[in-house]
Design goal:
The structure is a homodimer. The first copy, chain A, contains five helices and two strands, in the order H-H-H-E-E-H-H. By secondary structure, chain A is mainly alpha-helical. Chain A has two domains: 66 residues, Winged helix-like DNA-binding domain superfamily/Winged helix DNA-binding domain (Arc Repressor Mutant, subunit A); 46 residues, no CATH class. In chain A, strand 1 and strand 2 form a beta hairpin. The longest helix of chain A is centred in the C-terminal third of the chain and has 25 residues. Chain A is elongated, with a radius of gyration of 18 Å. At the A-B interface, helix 1, helix 4 and helix 5 of A face helix 1, helix 4 and helix 5 of B. Chain A binds a DNA duplex through helix 3. Chains A, B: GO terms for molecular function: DNA binding; DNA-binding transcription factor activity. Chains A, B: Keywords: DNA-binding, Transcription, Transcription regulation. Chains A, B: InterPro entries: Tscrpt_reg_HTH_GntR, WH-like_DNA-bd_sf, WH_DNA-bd_sf. Chains A, B: This is Transcriptional regulator.
DNA sequence: CCTAGTGTCCCATTTAACTATTACACTATA
DNA sequence: TATAGTGTAATAGTTAAATGGGACACTAGG
């Protein structure tokens, strides 16, 4: 897997798993691939995978069963909450960034709108 | 200055200076504070400041005059181009991220609209 | 009971970012 | 010409991320 060298790999693995948990590839209660397999898939060391999973277990988005595997939480409320939280963080980051470039609220909205439109044409 | 420990400090300094260059605090041709002063202001080592400036000089957004100081480029076309580039990168990142969470184009737009509205109330 | 498949932990090593410190090079000006 | 203010470079030390390799613990199934 490709990584951005400006962000720790373990952190990008968390983001990657969040995506899979929130777009249907990994549903509530689903079992994750074994850590050793994940390490191979992501072309990364097992310890690095473990660090990402460890944090997600602490956060309550994953559960671990020694000898059996790692699983997505069955708490769908928790998952919905996670999605909200991640979406909000992303929106806030973009808003702050563009606002710092002196774009007004209206300009921020229209620039996103135009970006999406142009993107549709480009594809 | 506060830094996000998930991103290299020198990189955050670049972002910080881009903001100042694109929101009027540092206009075309303006002289930057001395590197030693910047280091103090940002509570960071001179070498770290130098690394950020070095990259910006290579990129052509800053120029350096030994013995005199560092200056914002006078090439306003270059600055406009920089702004476009940074805004686009930010929009692309947000779009990709939210799209990976299974939001449709319409949902992405309305979620940003709602975020901005709620934000206005909260303030 | 044994074995294969899991998660977990530990240790040593490497690498990159950052810091601290010192020295050098150029410019302007008194 | 001397000095203060500037950028630039070099070196050494610290820290955190990531790697590599090994060992241990638990579970399921033959």
């Amino acid at each position: 897997m490709k990584f951005d060298d400006k962000v720790p790999i373990y952190y990008q693995i968390k983001t990657h798993l969040y995506h899979e948990m929130l777009n249907g590839q990994l549903t509530a209660g689903a079992q994750l691939p074994p850590v050793r397999q994940l390490a191979v898939d992501l072309t990364v060391n097992v310890n690095t995978v473990q660090r990402a999973l460890g944090e997600m277990i602490t956060e309550g988005t994953l559960t671990s069963q020694r000898g059996k595997g790692n699983f997505v939480t069955t708490d769908t409320t928790r998952l919905a909450q996670l999605k909200d939280q991640l979406v909000m963080a992303q929106l806030a980051q973009t808003y702050d960034q563009l606002h710092a470039f002196n774009l007004t609220d209206a300009e921020i909205l229209t620039s996103l709108k135009q970006y999406i439109e142009k993107r549709g044409i480009a594809q």
